[in-house]
Every structure is written in C-alpha cells, then in structure tokens.
C-alpha cells in the first residue's frame, strides 16, 4: 500500500499545485496584480438572485408541508452532495478510486441533480483549480476575497488564464468514459429530470403533497443549500481554519464545511494529498462520502481506493505543517 501511495502521489503532483512557484513569490504578486477584466454575466446574477429569494420563501412553507416531504428533501440533498463529492470530485476529478458502470451511472444522475455543470466541465475546472490554486487560472481564486470565491466567480466571465490553462490539461480519461460523454450530451435534459422534475413529482404522487410545496422545498430549497455548501469549500475552506499539513498553501481544515459538505472540509489535507480517496487522514470520521465509497466497495461496485500512508502524512506534517493537529 505504501508503494501504491507513493506512485499515486507522483501521478497527482500536478493537480496538487506544484507549479514551480513558492506561494507569496514575486511571480505570485505580479499575477495577483494583473486584475482580470470585470465583465459581468448578468444572466447568472439575475438567476442566482431569484433562486436565493425562492429559497428564502421556501422556508415559510416548511410548517405546512408534511414531515415526509422534509425527509425527502434531505434525502435529495444527500444524493445531490454525493453526485459532487463521491462523483465529480473524488472519482472523476482525482481518480482516487475506481467505480463499476452501475455506480458511475448513479453518480452521474446524482451529479445532474446537483446542477453544477456537467461532469466533464466540473472536473476540468477542478483540475485547473488544483494545479493553479490561488492564481488567475483558478476559477474561484480565494485571494480575490470571500464573496468572489463563494459565488462572485459565477457573476463574472472567467479569466482568460482559466480557459488557457484548462486547454493544456489532459482530460482524455474523462472523454474515454461513456457515462461522462452521455451525461454531457444530454445534460440539460438530465438536469430537468433529476434536479427539478423528480424531486417535485415524488412527494406529490406518493403522499399527496402539493406541487407548490414539493417544488419549493425538494427542488429550490434543496438545490440552493447544496450549492452553498459546495461553494463553502471554495471560500471558507480556503480562508478559515488551521493548516496542519502545509502552512504554505491557503486551503484549511474547516469542521463547519466538513459537516455541511459531507466530508469535504479537510481541505488542507486534500490539497496536500489530492489522490487520497478519503480526503482526510481520519477515515470515516465526519466523512459520509468516505462511508459511501467504502460501502460501495463492500458491495463490489467500487475498488482500488488510493490512500496516503501514515509515514507520508507524518513526514509532510513535520516538513510543512503549522504545528496544529
């Protein structure tokens, strides 16, 4: 396992941000000073504003909705989150484990429920984020502030460096997966079905919930909450918390984000060991996504989980950690 860990670390070095520059270098300073052109995407501003207003209104419907509808909305949230964490992130972006066809189909459908761009685009941008973290090539560069890294990056046209660097990455593995290609081809249809139709239809059909309550609670509120907990990984987990593994990078360990994003808040660890399927040295602790992947392995639907060895983790802590635990 230790040899496998070392090989995995070498394969993923590019995605960990090893771009030949020390954080805080003169090159970094010049890059941060090159402010991108502020071109607003007004369609996204309007749609996101309406979405969040709809989510606030949804809260007023909770008292009149059936408890089964609350539970259904929460179940949809968990499926939505897994489509991002176990799917687009740990499986397709970092190739930290392998999944058989039935599991990949489920995760692709769950990813469409998340409605955060198709798997191909999500993974391409995420790989750029890791390789060029906190630079103009990072789609949600946290050095531009909390608001930008949380949601503001969606309100502006991408910096040209994001597209330029993204074109240079090897994404042939994504295009070789027929599930990824199919989801990309039929993405809009799959989003309509998985993100909006199915969450609304099930409570109305099976226990007589009103379509109005079903739509706003299981679709709008659930979708908005899922978006924001994902965005907190880009914003809060890059700004608030300790750095026990590498004090020279921005990503932090953030328990609040870990809880909301079902295991994705161990972010200093993740950027230090991006190949690790658990994104944490603590295994199942506060990590429902790791529990899910382990369960899929037990069922025979997943395999080849990559892990950083204890020796590798301790050596990294001693070499670059901030001394915290």
Automatic annotation (TrEMBL):
Keywords: Fatty acid biosynthesis, Fatty acid metabolism, Iron, Lipid biosynthesis, Lipid metabolism, Membrane, Metal-binding, Oxidoreductase, Transmembrane, Transmembrane helix. GO terms for molecular function: iron ion binding; stearoyl-CoA 9-desaturase activity. Its cofactor is Fe(2+). InterPro entries: Acyl-CoA_DS (IPR015876), FA_desaturase_dom (IPR005804), FADS-1_CS (IPR001522). The keyword Membrane applies. Belongs to the fatty acid desaturase type 1 family. GO terms for cellular component: endoplasmic reticulum membrane. This is Fatty acid desaturase domain-containing protein. It is a multi-pass membrane protein. Residues 1-35 are annotated as: Disordered. Its main location: membrane. Residues 71-274 form the Fatty acid desaturase domain. PROSITE patterns: FATTY_ACID_DESATUR_1 (PS00476). One of its GO terms (biological process) is unsaturated fatty acid biosynthetic process. The histidine box domains are involved in binding the catalytic metal ions. The chain crosses the membrane at residues 40-59, 71-92, 191-208, 214-233. It is found in: Membrane.
